[in-house]
Amino acid sequence: MNRMRWLPRLALALILAATAAVMAVPVVLTFTNSLMTDREIGFDYGLIGQMTDAASGGKDAFVQLKIIPDWLSFGQYRQVLVQSPKFLRMFWNSAAMVAPIVAGQAAVASLAAYAFAMLRFPGRDKLFLLYLMTMLMPFQVTLVPNYMVVDALGLMNKEAAIVLPGIFGAFGVFMLRQFMSHVPRAYAEAAKIDGAGQPTIFLRIALPLAKPGLAALTVLLFVDNWNMIEQPLVFLQDSFKQPLSLYLAQINQEARGVGFAASTLYMAPMILLYSYAESYFVEGVQLSGLKA
Amino acid sequence: MSRLRIRPFGEGTAALLFLAPSAIGFSVFYLIPFALGVLESFTDRTLGGSFVGLANYKALLASGSFRKAAANTLLFTGISVPLLIVLSLLLALLLNRSLPLRKWLQSAFTLPLVVPVASVVTVWQIFFDWNGTLNEWLHRAGAERIDWMQSDWSMGVLVLLYIWKNIGYDMILFLAALQSIPKDYYETARIEGAGALRQLRHVTLVYLTPAMFFVVLISIVNSFKVFRETYLLAGDYPYDRIYMMQHYMNNLFFSLDIQKLTSAATLMVGCIVVLAAGLLAFERRFRESME
């Protein structure tokens, strides 16, 4: 496939780079606009959401997305970080829900994945298929039953209503099983001959070899849960418990003036994580693509 | 297998212990609730209602909002998934060669995947608003402005956002699959006089098929997640054309119409299981035919 001359190759790279740049626009704009004063934002974007209509006598007025602010200002950040405690509260809410989900799912799933990948037991493949099918279901499918269970356990309006189902999600089991099934059987057999029990094989062989898989899972779970919207919408009516994703949905409508800074702070951990652990992220996606 | 019986602590017991934490939580939060939901869908009220057969399903199928939501979901998935697959495959084919900036390009196309929906929603709003940037461009070009979010165009907007977010995911999967095709297959094809197009059709696309099944499946699953974009852009009751199953089900939940909701959920699960089982069966048959 490397038969192309350098000129068409350069042209192709430039076209692709232009496409990629266009795709990055929403992210870049969110960042640059976070450095505007909220007066400038009110002035520039004030017309958004209002029905002006040339036909009904109104003027043709439009809003341009602005890339470079007229005035650089950290006013939005000061507003969001210092003057309104709600933002930090919700940032913390997000973190306090996502961290236990990631850690919990990684722990529970690595145990289960070991059983699925390295042990033989009756009904194994059928049970795994059940996990796989559950993984494919949209959240709304288990909405009512989940609600009933959460209610019965007395978890309504508590963070645990989101954290516990999150921990037992099927994705981690699926991904780590893919990873562990590449551990050569001979390793486990050799350890067994040396008298190692299953816990030892799990801790000393499977887990260390699955480390990249665990890292990939961590990154993917972080990204997915940081973005959660469906679950808190249903299970957390109390707005002081809600995560940032829902807060931003409100702030964007009410106070657009600080929305960009809040959004930037909200996406920053994910972008940092991505730039730091991109290879794990890519590997995680690839692994999720191997056949069952 | 006979060793299982001799050993006091065999693989079966070990598997049980390793599986226990996951299986218990999985049952409590997913399996049992789901089974209860299926039962609910055949009764007339929540918990302890009497059996009413398919009455809930009849009511559901007769409901105008359900039909609208189901039709919109099918339409959205039917448009967005094929489009996404074609575009991401094209991208993967273009990137699967030595290019300047290749690594950087790959990262850039994957970036939207990690950006939380809620953080860029304002930019989308400003772009697609009645007074927004896109309409300004139209205006400058001398065209009438379009109410993007309050017309059938709204589905186009969602298709665009879906592709923006997911193209990197599918591209990674296709790139991995492309790199696993042995180079000598192309060599052989070339020696037999196959041009670039023939190589694409008879080598690349054939050996991509197994990966394709999974990409299709995961793209459909991801197409259901467009609820997030819809909800953040358009709220509880978006324009008719983008009122999809997830929205419908969320609203049933908040209006406490549990019977209809559980029936809708059961139907949806049925569809997904049939689809997934179909794809897996196809994949198996394909793999056997290749051997």
The CATH architecture designation of chain B is Orthogonal Bundle
Helix content of chain B: over 70%
Biggest beta sheet attributes of chain B: none
Instruction: Indicate the structural class of chain B.
Output: mainly alpha
Low confidence ranges of chain A: 54-58
What is the SS-derived class of chain A?
mainly alpha
Outline the low-pLDDT stretches of chain B. 1-6
The helicity of chain A comes to over 70%
Task: Specify the CATH class of chain B.
Answer: Mainly Alpha
What integer is the average pLDDT of chain B? 87
This entry's quaternary arrangement is heterodimer
User: What do we call the CATH homologous superfamily of chain A?
Assistant: MetI-like
Looking at the overall shape, the CATH architecture of chain A is Orthogonal Bundle
According to CATH, what is the topology of chain A?
MetI-like fold
Number of helices of chain A: 15
Elements of chain B, N to C (H/E): HHHHHHHHHHHHH
Q: Give the tally of β-strands of chain A.
A: 0
Radius of gyration of chain B: 24 Å
Greatest contact pair?
A-B, 107 and 103 residues
Topology, number of strands of chain B? 0
Q: What fraction strand of chain B?
A: under 5%
Could you please describe the fold and organization of this structure?
The complex is a heterodimer of chains A (292) and B (291). Chain A has helices spanning 6-33, 38-45, 75-83, 85-118, 124-136, 143-152, 160-167, 171-180, 185-193, 198-209, 211-226, 230-235, 244-254, 256-276, 278-288. Chain A is mainly α and 292 residues long. In chain A, α4 (85-118) runs parallel beside α7 (160-167), α4 packs across α8 (171-180) and α13 runs antiparallel to α14. The longest helix of chain A is centred in the middle third of the chain and has 34 residues, at 85-118. Chain A is globular and about 75 Å long. Chain A starts with 5 loop residues before the first helix and ends with a helix. Chain B has 291 residues and is mainly α. Chain B has one domain (59-290): MetI-like fold (Orthogonal Bundle), CATH 1.10.3720.10. Classes of the chains: A mainly alpha (292), B mainly alpha (291). At the A-B interface, α1, α4, α5, α6 and α7 of A face α2, α4, α5, α6 and α7 of B. Chain A: Residues 91-277 form the ABC transmembrane type-1 domain.
